[in-house]
Amino acid sequence: RHCTDIICCVIFIVVILGYIALGIVAWVHGDPRKVIYPTDSYGQFCGQKDTLNENKTILFYFNILKCASPVVLINLQCPTTQLCVSKCPDRFATYIDVQASYRYKPDQWNYFRQFCKPGFNNPRKSVAQVLRDEDCPSMIIPSRPFLKRCFPDFSTKNGVLTVANQTTFKDGRGKTRNVTDLREAANGINNVLDARSVGMKIFEDYAISWYWILIGLFIAMIVSLLFLVLLRFTAGVLFWIFIFGVIGIIGYGIWHCYWEYDHLKGIPGSDLTVYDIGFQTDFRVYLQLRQTWLAFMIILCVVEVIIILMLIFLRNRIRIAIALLKEGSRAIGYIMSTLFYPIVTFMLIAICISYWAVTAVFLATSGEPVYKVMANQTLCKYANLTCDPETFNTTNVTKLCPGAQCTFAFYGGESLYHRYIFIFQLANAFVFLWLVNFAIALGQCTLAGAFASYYWASRKPADIPLWPLFSSFGRAIRYHTGSLAFGALILAIVQLIRVILEYLDHKLKGTQNSFTRFLLCCLKCCFWCLEKFLKFINRNAYIMIAIYGKNFCTSAKEAFFLLMRNVVRVAVLDKVTDFLLFLGKILVAGGVGVLAFFFFTQRIPVFAQEAPTLNYYWVPLLTVIIGSYLVAHGFFSVYAMCVDTLFLCFCEDLERNDGSTAKPYFMSASLHRILGKKELSPKKA
């Protein structure tokens, strides 16, 4: 063993160090409070400790009618003054009415004043000037906090939309308006609030049933393990039962088509052709034609003949595939620790995702507050230009664009760092993809090394190393980090291109240029196929790296040509393995899901008293089913890697050895018997 792809290893280490430096820089400049806390029109956080807004955790909008939708509100792009308040309004009131009665109803003024700009306490100022300078809102309406923002407190009464049981309100500008005018400004809030109520019930269900969910997942783990162990005895039986079942079903289909064809004989109109009746939206019309059933019968006969011929000519290769599946089950039985390695891969990927997400948030929240002119008039030439809130009222903008406001827009800056934040985000995404692919590659190479040590052991299990999994992991890290990083780099580049293409497709979705959309669609399809091909090549290259310790390019080339020399065996083994593992996943998820259904619906008399009372029984049920499928997928991914490794070792064994005393085979006795004497001569398989 020697170190491979050293240059790529050095680059990989430098990139990781640079990624750490990028994270540190982002953490220095970023401030996640900008995501957690709402920000008022002055760029100050609502609810931030040790500030004037410490007890003001909710954002209030002076005139919510100016906001088009909740999306605009959440993005802080609503052209109205936004203020931090301690609580939302609980009543209808207008500034005109409150100002007119402040002398003899000071309580109303004191209540209304908390929704005015801080420090404003001049009820003698004219209404026109107050509304022009937006010192106070023209009206307040009963609201409730949602997403730490005040939204109208909608409700329905006898099918009519109301706010505080009222259908109309005064807007503070001399007009009486219907509460339906608020609907556009707070579109969809009721649905979201209902979803929040459902979310609370789901959370309660999880809090009650989490213990039983874990028991269900533990049962799924035991069933998955038993399925893998029993495959050495049942792989052939399951496969042949499925094959003969398919042949029988197709045979029945042929008979049924012939029966329908013969039954329609002599019926008027049944001898017409499909061409005669043309295209019909009711497809049942075609079932009244003899020609339709004749075509079905011919197609099914062709499929039946193809399957039978494939079984005749590929019977030996199918037997080899089944023998390799049984051998894989036997190998896992000797190296049980491999079944739990996916936990390591999961933890590495979880660390990568967490680091990427945190860095992305800090990058997105880097910079100082940027203020822009928000104008009601669409023709205002100052709209969306940057401004200074301290000097804004002394400029001509308010005169040329009445009602314009200098409000907080986003966080940014003009420094070198802020100008290249988008590039840093791309780099963050690229290195994230590289690290995730490296974690997957490390897992594949580690498992391949462990299972290869099983295959090439002369006496099984006596010659298997003491700790094959840990030894393989150490070899992969010590000698082949560069090769694994090289393969992961190629895949990360293709995946980043796919992400960019998806972004462009999303941006150009509304365009009318058909050629551009067609070109993007073709590129997306091509890069999807390229990614699938590279994953297949990388997987087998890592196996060759684990076996021989060569660099990535050499291993990929040798793996590719070895597979091409055994392309039929590859296809047969791949399909047989996919079928059995898919059957296993359905068996585990379905079996545990049925058991969970009967338990959570209290249909098992023995456990009826133990079953928790739930709002939605489907919440833990779906969790158990999906979790069981993922658990089975984790176990079976190890098994699939085992079978792929044993297959490449088997092909290498056939090419390098001839079964003689000088060059004995390392394959098991069952594979020996399947090959027979004819294939014990040195030749390519």
TrEMBL record:
The keyword Transport applies. It is a multi-pass membrane protein. It catalyses: choline(out) + n H(+)(in) = choline(in) + n H(+)(out). The keyword Flavoprotein does not apply. GO terms for cellular component: plasma membrane. One of its GO terms (molecular function) is antiporter activity. It is found in: Cell membrane. Its main location: membrane. Keywords: Antiport, Cell membrane, Glycoprotein, Membrane, Transmembrane, Transmembrane helix, Transport. The chain crosses the membrane at residues 7-28, 210-230, 237-255, 293-314, 334-358, 417-435, 477-501, 579-600, 616-636. Belongs to the CTL (choline transporter-like) family. Choline/H+ antiporter. This is Choline transporter-like protein. It comes from Ciconia maguari. The gene is Slc44a5.
